[in-house]
Amino acid sequence: MSVRASDFPPPFDTGEFVGEPTDPADERIEVGILIVGAGPAGLACAIRLGQLLEEHPDVAEKLGDVPVALVEKGKQPGSHLLSGAVVNPRSLRRLFGDRYSVEDLPGYGPVHGESVYVLTRGAALRIPPPPPMKNHGNVIFSLSQLGRWLGERAEEGGAMILPETAAEKLLVSHGRVVGIRTGDKGRGRDGEPMGNFEPGADLVAKVTVLAEGTQGHLTGVALDRFGLRGDEPQVWELGVKEVWKVPRAPKNIIHTMGWPLRTAAKYREFGGSFIYPMGDDMLTIGMVIGLDYRDVELSAHDLLQELKTHPKIRNPRLKGIHYAIESGRLAAESAFASLQRGATPATALSSYDDAVRKSFIWSDLEEVRDMRQVFGRGFFVGGALASAMTISKGRIDVGKMHAEPDAEQPLLRTNRAARYPAPDGKLTFDKLSSVFASGNKTRDDQPNHIRLQRTVPKEIAEMWVHMCPAQVYEIGTEGGDGTVTVNLAPSNCVQCGAITAKGGRLTPPEGGSGPEYTLT
């Protein structure tokens, strides 16, 4: 009988994270527009609102002492941002106009050239870059550095950034979102108040913008509470990366497909690797895998270690960031429109959906719709179909291919972990060493923030153990009926969100917890 993680849903109730404001009215923190999440979208939204309010000071005055506030669970903007990142600069140009040029931003310059390889275990075949991997004119960034810079621009425009602040509950009154409640600080492992206890607070706003990213806690709550999920389920990928100091960085960016992933359809191993130069003496190398894989022993961390042993690597279209920035800019304009005289929230905020449909976000993604699903037929068939879809700009009909939730994939076992190289501390590393390098400062004795079934079939427990890049999960005692208990080390968590896609649910830890990324 096939085992699926979706058959063991986490103990999670959306209603636990939705409620009316509870603080007395005179103790609530009132802001004009509240943005949740200081990623590229949230920061772009704050920056654009600052521009609009500068042009319309009368509106800014009506919004009170804090016209725009942004809450961020990390220690500062950029702390939790990790990506490739090769960025199409058009959304940044739209956001800043003549205020800043792309050259003013903290990047590593434009892409000079690109190479794409299909790898086997011992060889590499160079192929022409497929259209989604063509990066001419794009710019190399560290997303964490870019996030810090965007945060400074948001504050210059008048936004108040509240770091180390977890958005725990969605405040809803009379069917309308009126803000968020922040998480408590200073609770012990069992939830008891400690000596440094600080209760959360109600932040109420005229407009609340959720910009937590695709795996955001309150975003998921809002999707369920208001019935906003689409017909097709969201599917996810998990990426890991390392930044290396090298004698000489490559001039070109490099993408690979194939090995160490397997090409047969039964494995559903979709993804690839990237190598991007960061100046003359640094590079970033990373591995991305789709979370609809089936092998319980698949591990993104260990795949990256295995990749580094390939002869091609030893001798030496991640382009979603600009969509996030543009979506944040459009959200700001819709939020601003909702404040105009005669506007109602329903009509003004519906303009956001219309604006996205008319933007390059929609036209770009329409051309590659179903591109992910075709690879469910295997690497070679999927590659042929994807090529046809790319050439036709999405107009060729390959039949409707429905997405399946990642947690509904039946699990299999192939002794895959036997191939992973042992860590040597020089080229290959273990997971805990990588957690240390992330700057993770999560307090050991805070409450557990990960919801999952603690007694599950052994296949599911092993899948969680291998999946996690931070060694959060551990197999405990066996139950004698094929089940095991799952032990947790929540303080290791780098908040990647993969557990939410594969059968559990991530909720916010105490504000300020998690990694402190600086070059990612």
Provide structural commentary:
By secondary structure, the protein is an alpha+beta fold. Among the domains are: 14-100 and 145-232 and 322-362, FAD/NAD(P)-binding domain; 368-403, no CATH class. The chain has 15 helices and 23 strands. The protein has helices at 40-55, 57-62, 90-96, 143-156, 217-225, 300-307, 311-314, 320-337, 345-358, 360-367, 371-374, 379-391, 431-437, 458-467, 498-501; strands at 18-19, 29-36, 68-71, 86-87, 107-110, 114-119, 124-127, 139-141, 160-162, 167-173, 176-182, 185-187, 193-198, 202-210, 237-245, 253-258, 271-277, 282-290, 450-451, 455-457, 473-478, 483-488, 505-506. A 7-stranded mixed sheet has the order 1-10-11-14-2-3-9, with helices on both faces. A hairpin with a 4-residue loop joins strand 21 (473-478) and strand 22 (483-488). The two termini are 42 Å apart.
